[in-house]
Structures are given as C-alpha cells and as structure tokens.
Amino acid sequence: MTPRRTSRPTSRLFLRLATAVAVALIAIAPAHADAQAKKKAPAKKQTTKKQAPAKKPPAATATPTTDLKRGLVITKSTRITPKSYRLTAAASLDSALIVVKGDNITLDLTGVTINGAEPFSDPDRFAGVAIRVEGGKHVTITGGTIHGFRVGIMARNTKTLTVADANLSYTWKPRLYSTVEHESLADWLSFHHNEQKEWLRFGAALYLDGVSGGNIKNVTAEHGMNGLMMVKSDHLMVHDNTFAYNSGLGVGMYRATDNTLLHNTLDYNVRGFSEGFYRRGQDSADLLMFEQSSRNIVAYNSATHGGDGLFLWAGQSTMDTGAGGANDNLFFANDFSYAPTNAMELTFSRNTLIANVAKGSDYGLWGGYSFDTKIVSNCFVRNRTGIAIEHGQDNFITGNRFEGERTVIRLWADKIEPSDWMYPKKKDTQNRNNSITGNMLSRNHVGFNIANARGLQLANNTLAAVDTAFVMKDTLGLRNTGNAPVQAVEDSADPCATMGAIPAEFDRLAPAVDGIASTIPVSPMSQRPRSAIIVDDWGPYDWRAPKLWPVDSTHSAAVRLAVLGPDGKWSVVSRRGIAGLSATTGVTGDTVTVTPAPDGASDWELVLEYKGAATLSPRGESKAANVAQRFSYRMFEPVTDWRVKFYAWADSTDPRTKSEAFNRVVQGTPLTTAHTSRLDYLWARPTITGLPSSKWALEATSSVTVPAGTHTLRTISDDAVRVWVDGALVIDNWVPHESAVDAVPISAGKHELRVQYVQVDGWTELRLEIVKGAPRAAGSPGPH
C-alpha cells in the first residue's frame, strides 16, 4: 500500500494569514473610497499677484442621483434615486435589469426598493436577474431592497467585491409537494454537479461565480430558495449576514476556497420535514460545501434547524479518482443543532471541528469516509447518534461531551461497498487507526458501537449513567484502557454551558477579527426544539405571522389545528363544511379541533381573525400591532373510490417497447387488487403483499365529481404514468422518469378517471389529486 500524504488540517500560520486577509478585506472598500476622494487636482502655477478676498463657499448640494430603468449599464460610481421601482427583468439569466462594468465603482442603493414582480405574489413566478456585475475590480454595492427576481445580485469574475447592507429576500422558490403525512420525491434537491452552472436553475439572492476577495456583510436573504451561493470564489469575508428561512440553502459553496464565514445567522433553511411523520431534509442545508471547497474558516455562526446544519462532501472528482476532498476547513464554535437529518455531515474529506454544538438531530455528526479529521471539544446533546463514521481513518475524537444520545459513537466498515463507486477502488477504505480519548458521556443508551475496526485507541473516556458502555465486534488491535464509570451529576438545562476548556493547541485556532463578534448569534427561534420546523407548500415558516397548521393527520375524522405565530388573540370569522369546533376564540398556542360536516368532509375551510403583535408574512407583507388580519386552513379533496389492479411485467411485455404485449398484461389476471379512497403510493420497498420491487404496473379507475370553479388534475409519478378523463388521454408521461409533476385542467361535473402506472425499479411514487386553481410549475428542478 502506498502511504498517503497527510497534513495538519489547519496551522497557526494559516489562521494568522487568513485573519490578516479578512481584516484587510474589511478595510479595503473604505480605503479605496478615501483614495478616490483624495486624488490631487493639477498644481496651480505660483504667482505674486495679490489675491482677492476669499469668497464664502457655496452651499452644499446633494449628490446627483440616477433614476433606475431597465437596461441601465453602470460604468462609474452611481447613486440610484431613492424610491420604489417596479421593473421586471428578462427571464434569461444571461441578462439583467442593471449591469455593472468596470473598476473602482460604487453602486449606492440606499433607500431604493426594486420589485421584479407584483408584491406578495407566488414566488415560483419570479424571473430574471436584478443586478449583474461583469468582471471588474473593487466593486461595491451598498444598501437597497431587492425582491421578486430569480437572482437578486450576480457577480462573475470580479476582484474585490463588496455587498453590504442589502435586503435580498423574497427571491424565486418553487412550490413544494410534500404533504403533512409523507414527503414527495419531487422535492429532493441535488447540488452535486455545477461544472455547467447547474446551480443557476435553483436561483439565489446572491450568486458569486469566480469572485476573488471582498466582503459580504449585513445582507439579509430570507424566504427564497437559496441565500448566498459561492462558486469558484475565494478569499471572501462573509460576516454578520442573515440567510435564513429559505427552502434550499442558506449558504452554498462549490469549489470555494480560502473564505471566512463569521457570525452569520443561517437558521431554518429546510424542507422535507413534518414532525411525527418524516425527517428527510431532502438535501437542504444551512451551509453546504461541495467539490473541493477547502481551507475555509467557519466560526461563530448559528446554523440551526436546517435540513443539515452543515453538509460537506468532497465532490464527484474525488469520488471518481480517490484524490482530493473538501479538505482543511476549520469549523469553530458554530451551532448546528435541530436538523431533521445531520447537524454536521462531512464525508470523504479531512477537516477540523472544534467547540461546535449539535443538539436534537438524527445524527450529531455523520462523517462517512472521513480521514485525519480532528473532532475536539464539541457538545452533542439528545441526538439519535452522536458521531457516526463508516470507513474512517486516522480520526481524532477527544474532549467532546455527549448527553442523552441513544448511541454516542458508532464506527464501522461495510464488508461490501457500492460497486459503482470508483473511490474504494482507488484507495484503502478500511476502518482503521482512529482515536477516541478523553470524552465525557452522560445518560446515554449505548456508549461505543464499534465493528470491523483496526487499531482503534479507546482511552480515558468517562461514562456516567450509560446503559451499555461497549458493543464491539471484530476490533483487531483494540487498545481499550482507562475508560471509567463515574457518578452522574445533576441534569443540566444546557450541558454545553459546562464544557471544559479547549486544549491549548486547538484553542489557539480560534479566529479573531476586529469588529466581528466571537460569539454565536442567538435568537428565540434558534433555541427552539426541532418540532418548531414547519414546512408548507412554499417552504419553512418563520412564526412572524399567524398560521393554522395540522397537529397530526389531515385525514382524521376530527382534524386538530394548532394556532401558531406571535402572541395574540384569535376568533372565528367564518366556517364552511364544518359541523363542529372545539373553540371559537382563544390565544396563540391553542389547538382547535375541527369536525367536518358529513357532506363536507372533502371540502371545508376555517377562517380566523388575529389581533396582537406586529406581524410580517412569509411574502413580506407587514401589519402593525393590533391590526386585525385573517388567516385560514382549507381542506379540499374530492371523493374518489379507486379500484386498483396490480400486474407484473417482463422483458417480453415491457411497456416501454412492447406496448401491445403490455396491454394484454393489464387485460389479464392481476397479481393482487386494492380498494382505496386515494391514489397515493410512496415507498422504497413495496408495502403491498405480493408485489415485486421492480417491473410491475397498475391500472386504477374511479369516478369523481368536481365542483364549480377552476380546478386541476395533478399527478406525481416515478417512473411512468398515463391518465384518461372520460376516455380522453390527458396526461401521457410514459417515458420512465424521476418523480415528476404533470397537471391539466379538469372541468366541473362528474368524470370517469383511469390511470396506468409503470414501475421499472428504484423508488415508487404515484399520487393523483384534484386541487383548486390553474395548472402551475413543476416544482423543484431535477434531478431529484
């Protein structure tokens, strides 16, 4: 075996250099402005002529401003006239409402609001780019409120860019199709490839491509899909920003190196979660770092309640070659708690994690294939598993605290690795030479679950009230010494507040930059449990406006609705299709039980009125305190009675190529049948007895009565679907595909429905529903 080169993840010199660069970047914009202001005028020729008395200087005049118009090109420092503008941009992301070209330019948007769409409208209709910076050096954009675009600000190949004091909230985001009861695979995201600028399909508040140096500070981006995207960008200082409540990412990094992220609020960037039903995350994250994103410093950030708090992956190039990784990043004193999936996920890479917090998540740290990684003085509380590392090598886990975990640390190696991965074919992937020392375990179910490990050092850990200390299997060369049971201390409200000192060699890595707080931003929402995550069909809810939301299944005979939002009072304004309510007045935090009328079970609505604190809606509409506002919950599900027949098919009756043979199959004897009130299937493995996992099909029929109004028949399918209404083929998506949304109008009246669905292999998803309104966009761009 050829020895692999190893290096220290971070060094004191690296931190000093990075901090110095950060300070310089913060200062560079004002320093440059001062230099511009102090340019000397041409020297006047000396004269002996008697000078006239000095004149009184003229009164100061306001800086000239420029009105914003579509197609404006900025080539010198400009101040836009402060007011509100309603200007749409071309849909193409290669154009923009405003283009900035040149060096040494400041674009001052103080007091300017730009709306690219009708305020408070559906965000999946937003399009275009508001501002594009093309190349240039020393470009500054300051101030401004920009809403209603697919991309707020885009910069390409710019040297030393500053974006400061801007609000870029309410950019494009897709409709989501996961329900309270189960997710939809159509909502899954994939950020794994961006060599062909694939990330642009997702939009962003701020998209940086090839930007080197600069400062992103005091920028807010909420309620879009993505906040800040950094592609092939380096040496940026990103601090004191809020990128939160987005349905994709707070910050995304791809081939982004040598950047510093300090004291940012990156909370609630999430999808794919429903308390009590599923916790999938669907590859959303507060902070995502992919494809060789290396040597970055991430410190003092609040990144709670994200799909993942931190999602780091080496990249496809590493998977293909076994080389490289998203390496030598420092994560110091961040809060990654309350993730539906992983508080921290770092895979196939080498990194350093010091003094971070991971509470209330499925996994505190998932570190598959991590190597030479330092995990020091972190705090793990009430996760399903504290640290899980498969095929890890030379990892150092010391001085961490684990409280209330089901399993504290699990290390293992699979005997068979995925056959389509090149990575294990290119390098050694044994689970070997890891070190677990000096950790504090308290009130856990299982301490150390170790399997198929070589050369593990397990030493000097303390265990208090741990049900099972060791679960060991195949641990050649194990050094198990000095691990001692101790008396459990009184339960602490916040175990992380009583952590011991960080070892000096790691404590000295703490980043420090003048003017930037060395503390984690804290808000009441960041401290709430994971159950505070509410994701509706437009993304995460921020609790700033009243909302009615199901406590449990919407298909119950009596539906319980929680009254969420700021403190205040509510009362019933109207009800339709409802036989009974548990209360007609109350306060925020109540639960109202709705009993639908027998004839209204599929179509009912409850409208409440709220009075209380000032509010801000998820689309940016504000209301003053004690101003009455209405909010509601509606259930609409026309009654169907599906008769479903399931069939198996073979290569000789493949519906993709042998249509006549397949038609004979669905006219024959089914494998099994079902009778169901809704056509809604989602599984990785069949939940219907007798059904194979691949190569099967179904045919389903039902009648339905659609009420007056505008309605849409919608399917979500993976792999193929056809739908007939009254004998007419209206949906024909028969080429196998990932989960995809198809929609057509359906008129009022009684109709006969027929559905054919084909499953080739992999996941199964089929849902047919009739919804109010006109057909809409297909949701999140694939692949899923």
Give the helix/strand layout.
Blueprint: H1 12-37, E1 72-74, E2 78-79, E3 84-86, E4 98-101, E5 105-108, E6 113-115, E7 129-134, E8 137-142, E9 145-147, E10 151-156, E11 159-164, E12 204-209, E13 212-217, E14 220-222, E15 226-231, E16 234-239, E17 242-244, E18 249-254, E19 260-262, E20 273-274, E21 278-279, E22 285-290, E23 297-299, E24 310-313, H2 316-321, E25 329-332, E26 342-347, E27 351-354, E28 357-359, E29 363-366, E30 374-376, E31 379-381, E32 385-390, E33 396-398, E34 401-403, E35 407-412, H3 423-426, E36 435-437, E37 440-442, E38 446-454, E39 457-459, E40 462-464, E41 468-476, E42 479-481, E43 484-485, H4 504-507, E44 535-536, E45 539-540, E46 547-550, E47 559-564, E48 568-576, E49 578-581, E50 585-587, E51 591-596, E52 603-612, E53 615-616, E54 622-623, E55 629-636, E56 642-648, H5 659-666, E57 672-676, E58 680-683, E59 696-706, E60 711-718, E61 720-725, E62 728-733, E63 740-746, E64 749-759, E65 764-772
Parallel strand pairs: 1-4, 2-5, 3-6, 4-7, 5-8, 6-9, 7-10, 8-11, 10-12, 11-13, 12-15, 13-16, 14-17, 15-18, 16-19, 18-22, 19-23, 22-24, 23-25, 24-26, 25-27, 26-29, 27-30, 28-31, 29-32, 30-33, 31-34, 32-35, 33-36, 34-37, 35-38, 36-39, 37-40, 38-41, 39-42, 40-43
Antiparallel strand pairs: 20-21, 44-45, 46-47, 47-51, 48-50, 48-52, 49-51, 52-55, 53-54, 56-57, 56-59, 58-65, 59-64, 60-63, 60-65, 61-62, 61-64
Question: What can you see in these coordinates?
Answer:
The structure is a single chain. The protein has 784 residues and is mainly beta. Among the domains are: 92 residues; 131 residues, Jelly Rolls, CATH 2.60.120.260. Helix content is 6%, strand content 40%. The protein contains 5 helices and 65 strands. It has a 15-stranded parallel beta sheet with strand order 1-4-7-10-12-15-18-22-24-26-29-32-35-38-41, with no helix packed on it. Strands 2-5-8-11-13-16-19-23-25-27-30-33-36-39-42 form a 15-stranded parallel beta sheet, with helices on one face. A hairpin with a 3-residue loop joins strand 20 and strand 21. The protein is globular, with a radius of gyration of 29 Å.
